[in-house]
Amino acid sequence: MSIQAIQQAIEEYNRIIIHRHVRPDPDALGSQAGLSELIKASYPEKEVYVVGEDDPSLTFMVKMDKIEDHVFKNALIIICDTANTERIDDVRYKLGATIIKIDHHPNVDPYGDLSWVDTKASSTSEMIYDFYLNAEGLTLNDTAARLLYGGIVGDTGRFLFPSTTKKTLQYAAELVTYDFDRTKLYDGIYNVKDHIARMRGYILQNFTLDEDGLSVVKLTKDILEKFNVSPLETGQLVGTLGDIEGILTWVFFIEETDQIRVRLRSKGPIINEVAAKYNGGGHPLASGASIYSWEDAQKVIQDLRQTLKKWDRGTGSLSQ
Ligand code: AMP
């Protein structure tokens, strides 16, 4: 059983370094730092570090440790919430002695000496709480509870997405019994700066919507500059179209210096297969990809149209 094997590995190593994916979201940070707090509270003698780049909009959750290369030697590496090796933040994970993958995305790249992948879990933070419940004699403190709760809230869209299960709600109910400021956590995750709100206004004025339910938003460098929004900040904008009637699948193209980032979302049709065609991947209903020209953006749109044509809106399933 993965949980026991993971606990055994944690017990064997004195030094543990925990990673997560690039461009972190609350679940990446919540699972990474929640696990770190769980290990620190349960095994106070161990050295535990969290690594990766800080995203200024999320440092209210946790700040990363800065460590030198030699620290990785003989360390146990745990990588949370990251489906494929290309997306692991801080490539020095390769310097570690043993690698463990803990994730809830489809297991497209089964890396690691040990791996625990549960695609039914709403979030990797939910899995870390599962780990706490099913491992032997661990201690969860208030800080860990806050981080895990934040991760679950983030990845379930405040318990709105279909990935939210009875288990998710049960775990959330248990986590809120710990002592942390929930309002402050929600403010940190959901409050947006005024320039983001104005960009939302632009998106709401300019999205397209075709007869099959596809919506497209193109954020060129000029537009991003006009609203003073960085490509990283567009993560806060992709949900903007989620509650508009008639939109089944939507795509954001974000022009960066070296690529056009594609952010895909859907309310039914499976879109990670399209993402996989364009150097990407992710969940069936929330995925991302990278392309290098606006001609390729047209191809992505065509592929999404094909996917939507096969979708029966009446039954909410693939057409026969
Ligand atoms: P995002 O739009 O960045 O919130 O990404 C949505 C989901 O797609 C997340 O689960 C990401 O892990 C995944 N994802 C985004 N970009 C990529 C990519 N280039 N390769 C693989 N997965 C991705």
Question: How helix-rich are the residues, as a percent range?
Answer: 25-40%
What proportion of the residues form beta strands (DSSP E)? 15-25%
Form type = globular
Count all strands and give the number: 12
Bound molecules: adenosine monophosphate
Rg estimate, integer Å: 20 Å
**N-to-C CA distance:** 39 Å
- Given helix and strand content, the structural type is alpha/beta
Biggest sheet: strands side by side, in what order? 2-1-3-4-5
Q: Give the number of helices.
A: 10
Overall pLDDT score: 96
Features:
five-stranded mixed β-sheet; binds adenosine monophosphate; 320 residues; alpha/beta
In short:
The protein has 320 residues and is α/β, with parallel strands linked by helices. 36% of the residues lie in helices and 18% in strands. The structure holds adenosine monophosphate.
Verbal overview:
The two termini are 39 Å apart. Helices cover 36% and strands 18% of the residues. The longest helix is centred in the first third of the chain and has 17 residues, at 26-42. It has a 5-stranded parallel beta sheet, with helices on one face. A 5-stranded mixed beta sheet has the order 6-7-8-10-9. It has 320 residues and is α/β, with parallel strands linked by helices. Helix 3 crosses helix 4 (142-155). The protein has helices at residues 2-12, 26-42, 124-134, 142-155, 166-175, 182-190, 194-206, 221-227, 272-277, 294-309; strands spanning 15-19, 47-50, 76-80, 98-103, 114-117, 214-219, 249-255, 260-266, 281-282, 286-291, 311-312, 317-318. Strand 6 (214-219), helix 8 and strand 7 (249-255) form a beta-alpha-beta unit. The mean pLDDT is 96. It binds adenosine monophosphate. Adenosine monophosphate binds at residues 21, 23, 83-84, 87, 105, 235, 238, 263, 279-283, 286-290. Residues 21, 23, 83-84, 87, 105, 235, 238, 263, 279-283, 286-290 line the site of adenosine monophosphate (AMP).
